[in-house]
Specification:
The protein has about 500 residues and is of the alpha/beta class. The chain contains 22 helices and 13 strands. Helix 4 (about 80-95) links the parallel strand 3 (about 70-75) and strand 4. Helix 17 (about 400-415) packs antiparallel against helix 18. Mean pLDDT is about 95; it is low at about 505-510. The chain binds cobalamin and iron/sulfur cluster.
Amino acid sequence: MHRPARKPRVLIVIAHFDDSRNPNGRPNFVPQGVGHAFLAGAFASSEVELMLYSEFYSGPLADEKMFSWPDMLVLTGVTSAFDRMRQLAAYTRVKSPKCVVVAGGPAVRNLPRTSASTFDYACNGDVEELATVAQEVFGPHVVADHFRPRFDLLTWNGPVNYAESSRYCNFRCSFCALTAENRPYAAYDLDFVEEQLRSYRRPKPVLFVDNNFYGNNRSLFYQKLDLLEDLVKRRILPGWLALVTSDFFSDPMNLTRAREAGCLGLFCGVESFNADQIKAYNKRQNLVLPQLEVIRACLEAGIVFQYGLLFDPTVQLLEDMEAELDFVLNCDRIPLPAFLSLTIPLLGTPLFHDRLRSKQFLPMAKLRDMDGYTLLTRPIDELERVVPFVRSLAKLNGHSRQIARHSFGFWRRYRRSLSVRQMTCLIANSARLCMPSLINNRRSPSLTHDETLTYITSSQPLGPLYQPLFALPEHLRQNFSPTMITDEAGEVHPDIAGNLTRLSTPVREQG
Ligand code: B12
Ligand code: SF4
């Protein structure tokens, strides 16, 4: 057991690579990741010094003093951030050689062998597993008696507060990271939900980051709405937003009940307006009702509807993808998507295995490029023709006129059912699609790197973060070489193959 004379110092970081190589973070973006605040809940606040840092919010961690500070570095992040976790681990090993490095999250779970050799603790469990690690490293006194997320340590000033009322999902879409993990959907106890909501000193609308806020237990869902309605009436909660799966809309009462309970907006993974594509994604819950009807009903009920659209050039023709984008830009019955992205063959998903089996991964495919904006697999059409379309997903700047026309038509149609605040949020989203720099916090244009991006994994520049900030011993320099999915011939890279036993766990559909 490692017991420093002073209180142990724990630094918890959301590691992140920005797809556009924006070096300044995205403090204005919603949603923000809250994994660090949840992980902090493992520690007794009086027994440790805790510091949280989100690279997504604040930009890459570059202050060398920060690397010498901790006795324990805890890392979390999405799949594409795995190399960034390796880099941060290397910096800390140099500046604070006794620091214990703990990592978890989807990439760590899917790359158990690589992770075990990179971090001192490569966690496969949920946030609570950190308590076990903390106890082993510092002793039982540092562990919190009662686990609760430490939102009080977030120094943000965003438009919403965050909470979580459940974990994982009861569906199994072919491209989803949660399908790869195959963990059962779990709803939290309502007391725990209420505790999270009451923990904020400044009341703001709360965004539930659950993958599936609706879940598979109707009675529990209605109890959750009762709780929220009560908190809204008592003015503890000025409204809420959540991510729901399409089955939520099958019962029209759900919209009415949600509105009564103070719901301001819902996000739902529409993914595509093409039924065949939805079937290919194993997302049949999206086919129960016509998608356009669902969106109209939600907006007319006075609830903002937000969604993401996915495009898969490996199975979709360029002209079909362009037609779908055109349809959305011209249809003012629905809002513009909150984001447009490529379908990512994330590690361990059925889609990943399918693309590996059919040898569709491009040569020199990199884990870092699993960001939704870089082509990882061969398109049906010629690469050169597809790239401008892929580029347009990150920045719709050629469509400003269509977007302006769409926004006006949408405003005219829904100005009576949506409040000024709700409408402003949707129109702001449209503006962001033309000008992502609005939320990219690009303080210095000279620091932009996206002009060099090719949007093809084989040639995509890694970006400046792969150059170490300071001199590193040889054995740590390897933490700065990218994790490869395929080699020069497009064959699965031996390092990935070495982790594949865990990756081929069969999945069961729950529905
Ligand atoms: C906020 C958010 C974001 C934010 C910040 C993400 C971040 N770095 O934290 C932003 C906007 C950047 C983002 C982007 C994207 N996101 Co996102 N996002 C979320 C969201 C809504 C909340 C994340 C969160 O804070 N969760 C709360 C924490 C507590 O849970 P968690 O992070 O899932 O961690 C669990 C375990 O992994 C584990 N764990 C995690 N870390 C650690 C560490 C230790 C030590 C331990 C013990 C355990 C542990 O414990 C938790 C369970 O208890 C999730 C949905 C969700 N509910 O998780 C999607 C989600 C993470 N995003 C997802 C996707 C697909 C994307 C995009 C690819 C979208 C796109 N197509 O463009 C991009 C990726 C961008 C990129 N550069 O690669 C997927 C998974 C992605 C992946 N594995 O790579 C999710 C799960 C949504 C989904 N169901 O599909 N996202
Ligand atoms: S509905 Fe599908 S995409 Fe959404 S979280 Fe569940 S499995 Fe993932």
